[in-house]
């Protein structure tokens, strides 16, 4: 039976990391007759006034404003919005390229999305099937398929729980028991040193910092606003920055491939370390057993 390859988990934010702007801004907000600025100002004002989580606030505003405008808010309506999303250059073939590069160097690359945006909208994107798991905000729907309640709201600090789910291999969002159970580091399927987190700004800082502190790699991408990513780098919240251009041969492609090579090497060295420890223990146990027989 072939030896199982070490796993490297690549984790992504979505809005302004893989897509050029917030996913609601492509078609949902324009259909309400609002500008993106008007929608977010009203949503943020609601959150501030009611002391409300900002993610829950925007989900509430999506439902309420749609009802006010007599627009359908069925699940399939949200999924259809994903077809309008514009991805950064190179994103669509990025995943296959990284998978192939990883296998070439002896590691299996897995991709995960961790987003405060709507999972339903992401489902309509051509890259949805590339992710092993998508963790994003999501509505619960009634028997008619109409959005009635937030099923999951992924705010900026809540994102970090998904890093531990990936680390421990407990991917089912409803399984908190195994998530909180103690698991020795060597038995966790994806060590933090094999994690790469790619985001774009301050809302990704909790995940970026957690991965970085645990010897993984965090990268910040940017379209035009270099000031934010510069501060993330100088404040030691990320390891590297690059333009949000995912095409082969571009800076981001080059940096991530260098990281994959490093992680592949470290994984193989860690495996050799464990192998040598087991050999020593077996030899010690054999010697101890022989000593008992003599006595």
Report on this model:
- With 295 residues, this protein is α/β, with parallel strands linked by helices.
- The protein has 11 helices and 7 strands.
- The protein has helices spanning 28-31, 36-50, 54-68, 75-81, 91-104, 119-123, 160-168, 176-179, 205-213, 226-234, 251-294, and strands spanning 7-12, 108-118, 133-141, 147-152, 195-199, 217-222, 240-243.
- A 7-stranded mixed sheet has the order 4-3-2-1-5-6-7, sandwiched between helices.
- Helix 6 (119-123) links the parallel strand 2 (108-118) and strand 3 (133-141).
- Helix 2 crosses helix 3 and helix 5 (91-104) packs parallel to helix 11.
- The radius of gyration is 22 Å and the shape is elongated.
List keywords for this structure.
single chain; alpha/beta; seven-stranded mixed beta sheet; elongated
Number of strands: 7
Oligomeric state of the chains in view = single chain
Query: Which spans of ≥5 residues are poorly predicted at pLDDT below 50?
Result: none
What is the overall pLDDT average?
Answer: 94
Q: How are the strands of the biggest sheet laid out side by side?
A: 4-3-2-1-5-6-7
> Count of helical segments?
11
Largest sheet: 7 strands, mixed
- What percentage of residues falls in helices of 4 or more residues? 40-55%
Radius of gyration: 22 Å
What overall geometry do the principal axes of the alpha carbons give? elongated
H/E series:
EHHHHHEHEEHHEHEHEH
């Amino acid at each position: 039976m072939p030896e199982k390859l070490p796993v490297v988990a690549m984790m992504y934010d979505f809005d302004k990391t893989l897509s050029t702007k917030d996913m609601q801004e492509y078609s949902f907000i324009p259909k309400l007759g609002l500008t993106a600025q008007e929608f977010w100002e009203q949503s943020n004002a609601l959150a501030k006034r009611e002391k409300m989580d900002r993610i829950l606030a925007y989900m509430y505003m999506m439902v309420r404003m749609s009802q006010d405008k007599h627009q359908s808010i069925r699940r399939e309506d949200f999924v259809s919005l994903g077809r309008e999303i514009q991805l950064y250059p190179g994103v669509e073939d990025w995943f296959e390229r990284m998978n192939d590069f990883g296998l070439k160097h002896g590691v299996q690359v897995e991709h995960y999305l961790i987003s405060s945006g709507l999972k339903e909208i992401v489902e309509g994107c051509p890259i949805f099937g590339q992710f092993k798991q998508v963790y994003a905000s999501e509505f619960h729907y009634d028997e008619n398929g109409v959005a009635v309640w937030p099923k999951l709201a992924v705010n900026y600090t809540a994102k970090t729980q998904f890093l531990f789910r990936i680390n421990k291999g407990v991917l089912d969002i409803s399984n908190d028991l195994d998530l909180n159970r103690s698991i020795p580091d060597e038995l966790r399927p994806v060590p933090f040193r094999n994690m790469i987190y790619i985001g774009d700004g301050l809302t990704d800082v909790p995940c970026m910092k957690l991965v970085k502190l645990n010897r993984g790699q965090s990268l910040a991408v940017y379209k035009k606003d270099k000031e934010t990513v510069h501060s993330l780098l100088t404040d030691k919240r990320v390891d590297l920055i690059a333009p949000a251009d995912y095409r082969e041969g571009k800076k981001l492609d080059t940096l991530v491939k260098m990281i994959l090579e490093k992680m592949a090497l470290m994984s193989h060295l860690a495996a050799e370390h464990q192998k040598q420890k087991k050999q020593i223990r077996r030899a010690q146990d054999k010697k101890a057993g022989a000593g008992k027989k003599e006595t």
